């Protein structure tokens, strides 16, 4: 919010009128305890009214106001991190107006001042989340929360910020949400919205429905024993406990009446009767259905695959168990996938030895290309990871039931106390084969730009779907990225409410190994050339992936925020051409996009 007087510039957290009281949107009183029979046992769910945070300005002692700069200190298109004494804010000047929001990305805390400002939003330099500079609202993912917005005032050509101390400390804002009107009146075996799967797509779908004022029943069900959690951390921070990586605390689900049924396995979907049939015989009717079941890891098919201490990393318990067993022991990882490489990096300093077995000649060759793959491989080798390439596992040998050795088809025998399998995944859609929902030859659910399946009222999202990617001329693709799952869930929710919203986001991912990250934006499947800028040996580079004459993706290491800058170019519908080699260096060094004058140029 901006207002100008003849005197100074100030910033203050402003809550829209419709968001000032959650009670106004929540006619739901305390519901009676709900009882479900899950896996043969009765479970009680008591949905309570929780205290709601009020306007942060209700207490004058919670408000701070400070002069942060002169109006001429910032040019249009500039950002500055400013200190208000008890916390910092991000001050932005665009089109002659000042805006102020939280200075840290709510996802992992990246400094947004190092991000990319373009057309009314700022993009995170680390993982690509986007926030509206006028409202603070999150517009692209990953992450669930928005930024706090502060009031700006100009007086005597000075810029002032007025803000809630609490907002400055938390640096995040959860959007206002509706609640269920009266859960006690519902038939326990029916729901308005049923979400199968409790990952990022499912959770964002549920939250978006509530944010849009949906006040009917929402039920999420998952085979997992935990509430939704940050799944990428299973391979990046393997000793994290479930409560440490939870996306939302238990109280959140109670407050906003989002029911989560854990350890529930859907065995079939009856689209004619709009019913989900669970493995234990329980049935639940729905009006709208979201299928967001993700994928299932592939298992080894070799002799001895059932021996003890062979793991797929699927749950926090899996990751925790591997770390415990691997400490000071011999670890063999099968598959140089993202999961396999991240696990290898995490265990390298903890295990006695880490060996990685891969069928290809270079890690990440199909995704990042041979040159980048070799640079990454060299980094791993310098950190004591031993590679066995262009071979497979032929046998897992045991001693007293526990893993002892991994035998390769090359004839090599590796000592192994623990084996982690990361050879890819398949969509978890087997239960839909007889449903009538359109599934492709690889098992992916086929959806349109609105995340709708061929069945009215049935939506699908996340790793288990193929959808039209605007970036690649609406080619049907599968993009199993954390960021994309978030966006799928949001689009599905909006279209359950008949908003007619189409997906157009640019894929964005990252991987973390040995304290270094590779950022990646776009969709490089089928690339035929890689243009490298920088120094691969020093692990400071940008790689442009091209197909024919067009740049279809970009990856970088130690050169933020170049990937976020490219993501903004692609998001604007512009095309970077391979023939613009003379501009790559300028783009790489300065991020100057002035040579991109329009779509196709």
Automatic annotation (TrEMBL):
GO terms for molecular function: 2 iron, 2 sulfur cluster binding; metal ion binding; oxidoreductase activity, acting on NAD(P)H. Pfam families: Pyr_redox_2 (PF07992), Reductase_C (PF14759), Rieske (PF00355). It is found in: Mitochondrion. One of its GO terms (cellular component) is mitochondrion. InterPro entries: FAD-oxidoreductase/Apoptosis, FAD/NAD-bd_sf, FAD/NAD-binding_dom, FAD/NAD-linked_Rdtase_dimer_sf, Reductase_C, Rieske_2Fe-2S, Rieske_2Fe-2S_sf. The keyword Lyase does not apply. It comes from the Eukaryota. GO terms for biological process: execution phase of apoptosis. Residues 66-161 form the Rieske domain. Keywords: 2Fe-2S, Apoptosis, Electron transport, FAD, Flavoprotein, Iron, Iron-sulfur, Metal-binding, Mitochondrion, Oxidoreductase, Transport. Induces apoptosis through a caspase dependent pathway. Reduces mitochondrial membrane potential. Belongs to the FAD-dependent oxidoreductase family. This is Apoptosis-inducing factor 3. The lineage of its organism: Eukaryota, Metazoa, Chordata, Craniata, Vertebrata.
């Amino acid at each position: 919010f901006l207002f100008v007087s003849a005197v100074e510039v100030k910033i203050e957290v402003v809550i829209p009128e419709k968001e000032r009281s959650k009670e106004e949107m929540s006619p739901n009183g305390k519901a009676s305890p709900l009882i479900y029979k899950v896996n043969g046992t009765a479970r009680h769910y008591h949905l309570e009214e929780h205290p709601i945070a009020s306007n942060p300005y209700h207490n004058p002692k919670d408000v701070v106001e400070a002069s942060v700069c002169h109006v001429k200190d910032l040019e249009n298109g500039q950002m500055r991190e400013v200190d208000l004494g008890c916390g910092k804010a991000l001050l932005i000047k665009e089109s002659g107006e000042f805006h102020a929001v939280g200075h840290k990305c709510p996802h992992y805390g990246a400094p947004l001042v190092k991000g990319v400002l373009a057309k009314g939003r700022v993009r995170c330099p680390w993982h690509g989340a986007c926030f509206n500079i006028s409202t603070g609202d999150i517009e692209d993912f990953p992450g669930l929360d928005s930024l706090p917005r502060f009031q700006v005032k100009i007086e005597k050509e000075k810029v002032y910020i007025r803000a809630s101390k609490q907002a400055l400390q938390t640096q995040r804002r959860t959007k206002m949400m509706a609640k269920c009107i009266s859960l006690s009146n519902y038939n326990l075996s029916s729901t308005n919205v049923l979400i199968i799967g409790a990952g990022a797509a499912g959770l964002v779908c549920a939250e978006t429905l509530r944010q849009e004022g949906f006040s009917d029943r929402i039920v999420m069900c998952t085979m997992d024993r935990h509430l939704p959690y940050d799944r990428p951390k299973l391979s990046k921070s393997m000793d994290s406990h479930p409560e440490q990586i939870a996306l939302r605390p238990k109280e959140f689900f109670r407050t906003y009446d989002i029911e989560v049924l854990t350890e529930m396995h859907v065995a079939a979907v009856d689209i004619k009767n709009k019913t989900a049939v669970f493995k234990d015989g329980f049935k639940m009717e729905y009006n709208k259905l979201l299928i967001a079941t993700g994928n299932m890891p592939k298992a080894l098919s070799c002799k001895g695959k059932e021996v003890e201490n062979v793991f797929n990393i699927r749950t926090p318990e899996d990751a925790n168990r591997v770390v415990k067993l691997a400490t000071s022991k011999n670890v063999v990882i099968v598959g140089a996938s993202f999961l396999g490489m991240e696990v290898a990096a995490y265990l390298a300093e903890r295990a006695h030895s880490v060996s990685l077995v891969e069928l290809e000649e270079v890690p990440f060759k199909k995704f990042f290309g041979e040159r980048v793959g070799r640079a990454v491989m060299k980094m791993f080798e310098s950190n004591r990871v031993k590679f066995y390439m262009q071979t497979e596992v032929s046998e897992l040998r045991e001693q007293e039931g526990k893993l002892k050795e991994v035998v390769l088809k090359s004839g090599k025998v590796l000592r192994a106390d623990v084996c982690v399998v990361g050879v890819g995944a398949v969509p978890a859609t087997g239960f839909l084969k007889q449903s009538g929902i359109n599934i492709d030859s690889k098992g992916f659910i086929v959806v349109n730009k609105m995340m709708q399946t061929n069945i009215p009222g049935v939506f699908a999202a996340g790793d288990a779907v193929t959808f039209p990617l605007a970036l690649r001329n609406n080619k049907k693709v599968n993009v199993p990225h954390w960021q994309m799952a978030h966006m799928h869930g949001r689009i599905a929710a909006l279209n359950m409410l008949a908003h007619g919203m189409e997906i157009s986001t640019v894929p964005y991912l990252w991987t973390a190994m040995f304290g270094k990250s590779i950022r990646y934006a776009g969709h490089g499947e089928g690339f035929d050339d890689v243009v490298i800028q920088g120094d691969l040996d020093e692990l400071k580079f940008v790689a442009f992936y091209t197909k024919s004459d067009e740049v279809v993706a970009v990856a970088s290491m130690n050169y933020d925020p170049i990937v976020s800058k490219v993501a903004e170019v692609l998001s604007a519908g512009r095309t970077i051409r391979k023939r613009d080699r003379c501009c790559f260096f300028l783009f790489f060094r300065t991020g100057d996009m002035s040579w991109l004058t329009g779509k196709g140029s």
